[in-house]
Amino acid sequence: MPLEVREIMMQSKFSEIDQLAATTLRMLAADGVQKANSGHPGLPLGAADMAIVLWTRILKHNPADPTWFNRDRFVLSAGHGSMLLYGLLHLCGYPISLDDLKNFRQWGSITPGHPEYDPERGIETTTGPLGQGFCTAVGIALAERMLANRFNQPSFPVVDHYTYVIASDGDLMEGISHEAASLAGHLGLGKLIVLYDDNGISIDGPTSLSYSDDVPQRFAAYHWHVQSVDGHDMAAIETAIHAAQVVTDQPSLIACKTHIGYKSPLQDNSKVHGAPLGEEGLAKTKEAFGWPVEPRFIVPDEVRQYFEVVKEKGAKSQGLWESMLAGYRKSYPELAESWERMVNGELPNGWDSQMPVFPADKPPATRVASGKILDEISAKLPCLVGGSADLTPSNNTMPAGSKAVKKGEYCGPYIHFGIREHGMAGIMNGLALHGLRPYGGTFLVFSDYMRPSIRLAAMMKLPVIYVFTHDSIGLGEDGPTHQPVEHASALRCIPNLFVIRPADGNETVAAWKVALERKDGPTALLLTRQNVPLVTPRDDSLKNGAYVLAEAGKPKPDAVIIATGSEVSLALEAQKQLVDEGIAIRVVSMPCCELFEMQSEAYRNSVLPKGIPRICIEAGVTQSWGSYLDEKGATIGMNRFGASAPYKILFEKFGFTVENVVKTVKSLLV
Predict the structure, then answer these.
(1) pLDDT value of residue 116
(2) CATH code, 3-316
(3) Is the pLDDT of residue 261 over 70?
(4) Annotated catalytic residue 421
(5) Which of 280, 438, 511, 576 has a beta carbon 3.0–4.6 Å from 500's, enabling a disulfide?
(6) Which fold has domain 366-526?
(7) Could you tell me the fold of the domain covering 544-668?
(8) Would you list the domain boundaries of the chain?
(9) Any bridge partners for residue 265, and if so which?
(10) pLDDT tens-digit readout, 75-116
(11) Can you give the pTM of this predicted structure?
(12) DSSP assigned state of 347
């Protein structure tokens, strides 16, 4: 590398080479969007200056090892500007080629329009749904503090990095950002630094059409450290970031005033947000930057050399950290062993060896059983962290003897998320991205608030656990606003989400084991408020999703009753009466449809033989069960909202009775 390039990179001042790097980044983005005839050129054109400062002068990362644990995390919350990130990754030497940039938004490419998660290529999380990245970054920053508190020792800061975000006006309008920013300020997450791309434009036009927030004052009220700079002044941006790094007890917002579509014919126009510049507009933009119109996708040699320093710095930083880690392993072998397990996503041997046993004479609600399980396993699983959206006593989510995190005190495994369900779900995604195993509790009916974040967890294959209690009309007097009749079916519609509704304490134990052993996606546990009898065996049958709980007493049953959750005991009671009348009934517990569908066809047919009438019972809408019914089949469910009354009366009035089940079965056998 020429000496002058190296010297420029090592100095604090900025020069023409920095501007050339920013122009290169802009043009790669504009060319990629134009070639795809699809995309968002406005943000890359406007945010390139802050991106170059951050990625070349500030960010601690090593392109040769994208998953290096102690790297700084970068979240492009404004994920529609993904060509900005792809260009950065290519220039820095991550495994994204020029051909990949040319294949932007095409079938089978590794450069889709809205990337989510691809750590092997340097993409931490880059969210399409606005606000999600911002919220996820709060979870990443919280994980860094919790892990640093748990593992760091004097002279051995094995966890010591920043989380940086580029966020847009849209990110900060979305409600989830308010929830996450409030909690981040409350917890004093000083290693979270957000660069706000303050360009005053959204899709409809100027943000003034719908938005008059004083964003700096708003974040100051959240107890953030706040600065405002010219977003096209590289020196000012760098100075602001360094000032933010000094503030250790507050997250930082740097409002960077920029021009969307900078120097293009559509600068400061909403049309540049989400459409290509067009051939004429692209040519004029290149002329404004003194850039050749053709050829396209140019990277000057001096820019290639400029980014070589980034690679050198990254390799040096990782090398120093790995040397320190080697000393840490010698000085603190037990901590290091725990560290290695956590980093590798491994559960310690014997973590599930002493699960609680529930008395048959005083059977608990499944939410209570879940709490007892957490009491037992929490101390054995350093990776397990969780909390509740201000429903801790109802969700039973705080393990006995555990401490909650506070500002400046991050030793506890428990998080009081406050009444912020959406924020909680997004933050849990960030915790999972950093290698922790998060769980979060609320009432099942409030899963609606969390659905966008649950969907992203499923898409990114994150092992997040949702503890949803008060799972049906069984919660009783609170009435239809709190009775989640449609929510189990709604959650089952999300691909790669396991929805488990255990029948009793024994199935709840098995459900937690499935959830914790899963590494490729989230799991929702749907738990009762009311006590339920112990009716299932204490084994791992649940891992198959459905299994024969009670046999018909004949080689071939006359009918099969499928039930979930609290309705399994009802199915067993009905079976007894039908058997007494000479009707052979098989009862199948189906706590998890998704797991059942993963089993072999032979197994599924052994549980649900073809040609035999089936009855599905669940205290919720019947949408989930059509695929399990043959020509002769019926459902007993809740295709209406509930009512306010004691739960036993509700079950009776809505037909969840032995008499109605027996009647329904007989009607199919005529």
Answers:
(1) 85
(2) 3.40.50.970
(3) yes
(4) yes
(5) 511
(6) Rossmann fold (3.40.50)
(7) Rossmann fold (3.40.50)
(8) 3-316, 366-526, 544-668
(9) none
(10) 999 999 999 999 999 999 999 999 999 999 999 999 999 988
(11) 0.96
(12) P
